[in-house]
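Tutorial handout. Part one gives the primary structure; part two gives the three-dimensional structure as tokens.
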Amino acid sequence: MGMVEFTERTKTGISGLDELLNGGIPKNAVVLISGGAGSGKTVMGLQFLVNGAMDYGEKGIFVTFEETREDILAQALQFGWDLAKLEHDGKLKIVTFTLSKHHLSFVNFQLDEMISTFKPNRLVYDSISTIGVYAEILADVETLTSLGLKKEDMAIELRPDTITRRAVMDIMARLKSYGLTSLVISELPKQSNFLSRDTVSEFAADGIILLHCLERKEKKIRAIEVLKMRRTKHSMDLIPMLMADNGIEVLTGEKVY
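Part two.
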């Protein structure tokens, strides 16, 4: 007889995805959603929160650094998701930050407060790649201190990639400390040897889901692959994925090649 899993899970509610994950994401896991531009990362994050609020009675927070609130609301409406109503009903919060204006220490403080008062079950962080883009802006004394750097370290000119890695590891640890099921979105450059733009979040994450845009017979297709998921068995096959009228659908039982 095979070993029976008793892992408590957070269901994504995304057609086919929970099947790949043997029933859903292990509860309180921090999962990296990585892919190129237009691969469906933000849509997956929004769908995860909408399904949680509407189907499972779980509150969620969507944190974005890249889009305005209006853009997020409009994108969701394309799939029939009324985020404004979910916010009004106290089931969802959309939080926008601009790292050119807000230092990371401020962002972290605001998130801590929100988690404490709103008490969500799910969180989406869109995206952690932004941290690398604004690495030099992040290098204020308060932020560097919060990342565990001492005054003597600050006397040395730190490279932006060093600041980025420290900041990313701090963010991943902070998300784990919240005790939520979190999706962390990352841009994945073409021909990269890593699984995220920052090159370190894949090692800190409990799980990694890759979203692909592939070419087959002169036609572009979407695909999904679960590379890693701690505390559960999961499929590692490359599976076709659709962007349907009501969101993402994972076509389990079908193959890309």
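Part three, for discussion. The chain has ten helices and eleven strands. The longest helix spans residues 160-177.
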